[in-house]
Amino acid sequence: MTVGKIRLDLVTPTRVVAAGEYDMIRAPSVEGEFGVLPGHTPLLALLKPGLVVAARGEERHAFAVKSGVAEIEPATMIILTENALPAAEIDEKETRELLAKAEAKARETLPALDSLEHKLLQEELDWCAAKLAAVTESRK
User: Fold this and answer.
1) Which CATH number fits the domain that encloses residue 70?
2) pLDDT at 107
3) N vs C: which end of the chain shows fewer Cβ within 10 Å?
4) Rounded to whole angstroms, what are the CA distances from 112 to 48, 68, 116, 120, 132?
5) Residues 41 and 61 in one domain
6) Domain limits for position 44
7) What backbone phi and psi angles, to 5 degrees, belong to 118?
8) Is 19 within the bounds of a domain?
9) Looking at the domain assignment, is residue 125 inside a domain?
10) Same structural domain for residues 24 and 83?
């Protein structure tokens, strides 16, 4: 471990999406967005779908994540999530099309959806938004 860095391991059930040392990491918890620097107080956070940004100097790495957990220690951050994608792997056009379909479905059927259908539709909307946020962040 390099002094002054925090190691990020971003893991899904099928692969390690990111593993490396960074200066700062930003993540979306159910309580709000939070940042992690080396030496952070130990913390366990529930994550909501959103944008994870890992910074090394002027370099920024953007990832879309689904719900999960983040375990933070002074020198490490482990994110375990259902799904995560680096911005470079996201097809923006396809994501915008999926988002438009999900939004149309929400407008047309939301009052008639049962709670499970509503939850699944909201998860699709949140996942599309997370992917688009990662694409946007990667362009900065």
Assistant:
1) 2.60.15.10
2) 82
3) C
4) 25, 29, 12, 14, 28
5) yes
6) 6-87
7) -65, -45
8) yes
9) yes
10) yes
State which amino acid sits at residue 95. T
Which one-letter DSSP state was computed for residue 40?
Answer: P
More confident residue, 12 or 122: 12
**Helix residue spans in the chain (DSSP H):** 92-109, 115-138
pTM of the model: 0.91
Q: Summarize pLDDT for 46-83 with one digit per residue, the tens.
A: 999 999 999 999 999 999 999 999 999 999 999 999 99
